[in-house]
Amino acid sequence: MADTVKPSLDTVFMGHRGTLVRLLSRMVGSAATAEDLAHEAYLKVRAAERDRPVDHPLPFLFQTARNLAFDHLRRERRLAGVVVQDVTAEGMEEIAAPLPSPETQAGDRQRLARMNAALATLSERQRRILLLNRMEGLSHAQIAERLDVSVSTVQKDLKSALLACLEIFARLDREGLRVSAGPNVLQRDKP
User: Which residues form the RNA polymerase sigma factor 70 region 4 type domain (predicted)?
Assistant: First the structure.
């Protein structure tokens, strides 16, 4: 039996990214969301490869992407399903939004501090690309135009930024460190 060389995830992703994004775009109805989901699928498969080898990366990548698209659609449907009847626009302004619990607020502060620690390790351009994509929802083409770089540069920098953030979170978890919002940003977890 002849040995065959298994293509790397990077090779598979770059070779099939266009097809994957088109599939996701048809599923979710948005090219920008499809780009995000494709990158998220890549990152999830990359993380899975760290735990155990993936023998067939192409179908695993596409199935992961489809699952993420279904999750996205379920989340969108759930958010769109919140309908309040018999309430006027003026009445909606009088309804107070519930405040998060102190535990939720503390957790949110920790997640924000952890994200800030991850962002601090990125180059200025990677940080801008990540924030423009994730916070402002700009597509790769829109970011490329705004920053006067190629779409390929945006894709590579976004991939690098997302991987760097994941690696920092994983490293902090492995080292038993957590990020807190207090003055001592990194603290050891107590056993």
Answer: 115-165
Mean pLDDT of the residues in the chain: 80
Between 47 and 97, the higher pLDDT residue: 47
Greater confidence (175 vs 60) lies with 60
Last residue of a domain, one of 82, 116, 150: 82
- Coil, strand, or helix at residue 46? helix
Which phi and psi angles does 188 have, rounded to 5°?
-80, 140
Q: Is 177 in contact with 183 (CB distance < 8 Å)?
A: no
Q: What is the CA radius of gyration of the chain?
A: 20
Question: Does some domain include residue 5?
Answer: yes
Q: What is the structure's pLDDT at 183?
A: 40
